[in-house]
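Memo to structure team: turn this sequence into structure tokens by end of day. - J.P.
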Amino acid sequence: MTQILPTSSICPICYAEIPAACEWRGAELVMSKTHCGQTWESVVERGPAFTNAYYTNKGQTWNNMTVCLIEVTHRCNNKCRNCYHSEDMGLADPGIPEMLSKVLATPHQDICLIGGEPTVRTDIAEVVRAVSALGRSVAMYTNGILMDSPEFVDTLSRAGLVGIGFSLHHPDYSHPKVLERKRAALEVLARSPMEVEHISFSLENEGQIPGILDEIERYRGYARSFRIRSGYQPTRQQWLVSDLYALVRSEADRRGEHLVFFQGAENTRYQVGFLYAGIPVWLMSWPSDITIDLSHARGFPLAAFLPGSVQHFCRAVVTQEGWRKGWFNGRRLAE
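Reply from structure team:
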């Protein structure tokens, strides 16, 4: 008899939290939910053996994402094909008091400033200084284009910035001149007191896996960990974590390298920790409003995207999608 696993999800129409259920159908875990007069079924994981393995190995000792994400701008100096924020480009930046109110609304010590691209704010050092003055540890997620300036990096460090999340992507993701500046930025950061907490890569097709692993090997020691994530697709889940694992494992085997579960990683259906050739790597999958399972969209990292709302990052992104469409938690927003 098939075991029904009760859970909860989000309605893709009104964005209310609703009951859902998962069940294994052969090698596929299927989630079903009904609301607003419609029913949705979607595959949310593949391979019972993979699922059992990452649950067996999950822990609490290797989670470098215990932060709350605060948006500081909707603008960006690049236009990536897989950015969840692309529809917000051009909107006005929030003021420093507004951002500080979000910081004060979360009890968490670690804050990560994101966008858009935070470095396009001419007052970004003032933002860092203001958040740091609240006694919070301040990091920033950046595309790195403007971090190739030692003077700029030094200014941010003196303002109180202690950590960087860096989106490098696969080698042919960016224009060659953009990639050159990103590489220069990593060299500058390697000489700064700031820690590069992770370097991330967005996967667009299977053929990019070898290039991404080349980059991880190239920048071994530059960052505490690395991330390979599916490209953001708001209405579908491009690759599940098990799909990413199969792709990376195949290439690792071809190279004669080990890919093993990291015993201390805090794993969910959207992020699973591995060691590739001894290097900590997260494989990450974006859920959509159809596929999100709220029993897994929990813990860290948190995000304070909307007023009065602090949620797991994946849930916050889906909630923000609803907000753009005029819905919040089952309620129609005023026109």
